[in-house]
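USER: Note each token:
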Amino acid sequence: MKKLIFAIIALTAALATFATENNLAGKTIVFIGDSYVKNHRRPSSEAWHAKASANLGMNYVNCGRNGSAIAFDRTKEGFGPAMTDRYKTEIPDSADYIVIIAGHNDTGFISNDTQQNSWEEFCTALDTLLDGIMTQFPNARLAYVTPWAVDRPGFTEVNSRIIKACGQRGIPVLDMAALGVIDVNDPDFRAKYFQGPNDTAHLNAKGHDLLVPLGEAFIRLISIK
């Protein structure tokens, strides 16, 4: 997996001349999602996407919300409406690039047997979210970063569906589960790189730093038309 990461970074370096011509400085990049974007109890400025955007000279907009789900309204729990509603008013019209980081919280509904038709709801909502953003922001480049692999029911299905739906629309995907940079199931890794030893979602500053080079490479790649 590390070889793949290095290959992506090397490819970006090889495209340095093109990237200079297609300068990202001053462009607006919007990240929308859950606590992976919000960064939970830490400042969003510590997140890899904030640091990568700053390194590229981009205008960074954080539309993360703790506990947010793609398909499910969690207002009663204090986490707000589903992303299928949130994007309509939260993403600014000035967006040149829009990156979704979401899916972690949807797995909880899908794996819960008491939730009727939750899988169908998720699939429909994911399609609605992708199509809606592409329609409302036709001049923006849309991309997706999946959650990292968590050993919990529903994750594999959610991750696979995200990759399939994006592939059908030509949306670039950074599959964090496949890359394996974040080893969330290793307790020693969590103790060093997460906000708490039992945390499976929220990186600390050191954890985010692991992803900054990869994040920069991904942003450069999605800027190529």
